[in-house]
Queue: 2 jobs
Job 1
Amino acid sequence: AQTSLASSRKSRRKDWTKLIYATDLTPEEILRDTDREASDAKDAMDMDEEDFFQIKSRADNGEEVLDRSKEVWSAEELKKWEDEEMLESIRHLFITGEDNP
Amino acid sequence: MSSLLHFSGHQHFRHRLVLSILSGRHVRVDKIRSDDKNPGLRDFEISLLRLLEKVTNGTVIEISVTGTAILLKPGIISGGAVTHDCPLSRSIGYFLEPVAMLAPFAKTPMQLTLRGITTDENDLSVDLFRTVTLSHLQLFGISDGLELRIKKRGAPPEGGGEAQFLCPIVKQVKTLNFVEPGKVKRIRGVAHAVRVNPQFSNRMIESSRSILNRYIPDIYLYSDVYKGDESGKSPGYALSLLAETTTSAIYCSEAISKAGVAPEDIGLEAARGLMAEVNLGGCVDRKHQILVLLMMVLGSEDVGRCRMSEPTPRTIQFLRDIKQFFGTSFKIVPAEHGSTQLLYSCYGTGYVNANRTLA
């Protein structure tokens, strides 16, 4: 819950209109901003190993990014919903739930 | 207005073709997998181009010798009765989604028959398209005679399914003002199992109910039975779920049979996916952001507003592309203090269906 709170606070500060229309950031970069803590660590590692030559994109990895319309939930994201507390936490979004969680 | 727009890469191919046809602007896409071991367009992309040729009139498509570049000069959207065999590399949903964006602006109502795979993990299944996508079109006044008929089921890898999409034509789409998500009042679902034990449907339904029953009593999960020739060529099963709110916002999820996974786990996966979508909230779910934003841009010359969750990577690119094609940009602000949901608003272009035959 701590991390989700932190990330929601970050996204509140995010100026979406500006990020989308006035920057050259890729869509993934714009979204990654939301959980910077996680990616910062990874970026730092990438920087250490960075060499003059860089491997060219992911085209060579064989696996390409599909043009798909169904956004899939990651296994961890789904795993969260095995938790009783998590399931109870969205009760207020149903007509049978209280107004204020 | 028909100045050439230029894009690179195979990504976002579908919506760029759609925007080109709607706006009438010529499009050139190059560097299509030019660094790939197997460069150029894939069979499903070629197939989509062929389909777009069938539903339009006067469209010119030039593909380079290597298949890594195309030029599209769009004609008018003609509509009418069209039949198309989809390759088995992508499901029918891949082809239905772009056509649904074009069909309301055709010359005559579309009756499109698509054959192939009806449910897979990448694109909207025919069930979600029928129950959720069509409801989203109705928000914009596209409703009389709007229908998807699932004639035959077709699971991957062999497919053998068939669906017919019927879409009315409109003169103009309505301006959307959808900012109140409401609360979930009912849950609906469709389970199907073809060429496997028919009990699998009930097992998926039972296990998903173990999660869903706690929230509301109004739950109806339907087991859709297809037999013999209507059940396609391969075995498979899936459960699609949707939650509808008091203001008619719809959240949906779907889980599909995988080798070595029990039907119970597929049922749980669908239910958990639905809970994750409900938790994201907003008035439109992530799978339909693009469709809704497009229709808002095409709306009458008034401010359209919609409350949704954060944009997906596809949506972000779509918003940028829309600006190039139509010159329209959205204002995107937090829906309210402390919410991750956003309010998207734009001034409609007043797009008028010029192809429509005058009655």
Note: Residues 89 and 101 of chain A are 7 Å apart (CA to CA).
Job 2
Amino acid sequence: MDRHAARLNRVLLVLTGLLLAAAGGAGLALGLRAFGSARAHQPVLSGQTRHFATAHGWYWPVVAALAVLLAIIGIAWLLAQGRSDRIGGVVLDEDEHTGRTIVPAGTVATALQDDIERVPGVHAARVRLSGKPSAPAVRVNVAYDRRADLLELRDRIRDSAFARLRHTLELERVPAVVRLRLVTGDERRTVE
Amino acid sequence: MTTHAGRWPASRTSASAQASAGKGTAAARAARSAFRPRRIVTSLVAAVLLTAAGTITAIEVVSGVAGHPARLVPYTRVADWMRHTSWTHWGVLAISAGLVLVGLWFLLAGLIPGRPRVVPLRGDDRDLAMAVTRGGFRNALAAAAEDVQDASRAQVTLRRHRVKVYVHCPAHAVDAVSEQVRRSVAGRLEEIRPLARYKVVVKPLTRKG
């Protein structure tokens, strides 16, 4: 659920896309006689290529190494999709005299959740902490029902819940992403 | 219809706040990028392809060099076919075209930012990115339309930059109601402050008979 994976995805997608499009494009160009009719009528696997492979001892090891590299990139990419950047706690203050105080992420999340759930019309709030323990970020999913007013909900979350969170954590900035989700949205039309 | 008993007065959205929270600000950029699609499905497909291709090639080559070919793929048959097929063969062309298409798919998925599935809201705080689901957004706008006297059963559809409001009203008051609904919905838009600008179009529906 983190934006880090999103950036990685985009970069790797562009690179993979370029590679595939270039390979396919080269094949099409050859077949459509862009490099001359003689070249187009040569077999895909020409004697020249085979000769090159047998004449150079490094050919197959290099191919194998590239293949292993590709496989490793692919596996790392797959693993990155499942990785989460959740943190277990927040470092409250750190100085030489008092040492460090760590608040468990669950405590922080529950406090913020309770604050948000106190807003009228809010069904449930789910809070997750990510980032670094010294600079946490918050991700909130708020389920509200038709009794809630979108504007009030928004203002109260911003002005009370998050202000309190920043105050409690003694942090000036706590980047937050909030998703407001209407539950029982269709009820309004049928109940009337 | 008691959905918005405690709503703030419209004057709360001051002109200065509107100006300071324009489209190009850090807050707007943060809100937009926080809800962009992450291209997970396409990435999974690409990653699986990459892993499979790399692994199979590596196993084939290493086992072949070692003298005990693994034969995960019918290598001799493929090599044979390639030795007797020219680049102009339709099969080769089709494979090349397929590669180009898949490559373009990945390329576009990586380059195009994509539209969020939710409606990002404009804020003055770049540390707080908020979004509401499309259903919630439509619901709030439909409620604003139904606030108008004589307007009922409002339905809202969302386009990229257009909000279309279908609303039922008595035949004699079509023009007045349409205008009021348009104003009411536009007013609510001002208050909700979505990141994108929307034009409000009202489609009045009169009851037959």
Note: Residues 23 and 50 of chain B are 38 Å apart (CA to CA).
